[in-house]
Amino acid sequence: MKKNLKLLIIFLIIPILTTSAQEISPKKQVDTMLKKAWECYEQSKFRCMAAESKKVVEYAKKHNIPKGIAEGYYYLGIAYYSMGNLAEAIKYANKSIDYAKDKGNYKWLAYSYTLLGEIFKSLKKYDEAYFYFQKSFDLSKQNNNKKMMIVAYSNIGNLFFEKGNLKKAQQYYEKAYQMLKIVKTRDSYVALINYNLGIALYRQKKFKDAIPYLEKASNIYKKLSDVPSFVNTIYFLAKTYKKTGQEEKAKKILRENLEYAKKIKLEYKFLKLLKD
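Above: the chain's sequence. Below: its structure in token form.
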């Protein structure tokens, strides 16, 4: 199951102030670089994310910015995990964990535990995955970090979904969804939680209940320019419309978004659903 920050840096070339270093501090530069790497992730451009994250780590080491080193390692782990290179993903997750422990930073540690949980889940080592997801949740709860609790709830929900316990998965997704009402978090997480909840309901044949969550997820993914996630969500939304007797509505969104499906060579799925 899955998963736009736009920055403009203007360099003023004038006789006295000629360097960007005088305009942007190393810490702010690291933040800018991390945002650029995350933008690659939100657009499912994982090679881009890896390349940008390596730049972050190199720059942060040069200027001694701990945040850039820890989060750069973490982002590299995400990028390699997303590309299916689990060996590299584990390597960078452990680098991030070691660095976070050394600096005593619970956020970096929780993020890295989450990444290891995802890796073990992909290997179908569910007990190990649950162990790391729970460690991440415990750290988040101990420090009253509601944003991170949202992510932990969602991850544990994903684990139960993959194990086939849809009811339990729905319960965890709903916990995450309820927390979205009191905490503002990244749009990509909001979309993912809505999508996951919608799919959990769809799989349980609760089609009418699934619709608003899939609609919201599709709107956010489109805004983020995450074409693969948008197309996938539209596909299931159309299937859900058909299941609830809204045949014309299903055909309408499939036709309207066929060009997006063509971009990732999935138009055959849309065309098949249009014919069914």
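Residues 24-122 form a domain with the Serine Threonine Protein Phosphatase 5, Tetratricopeptide repeat fold (CATH 1.25.40.10).
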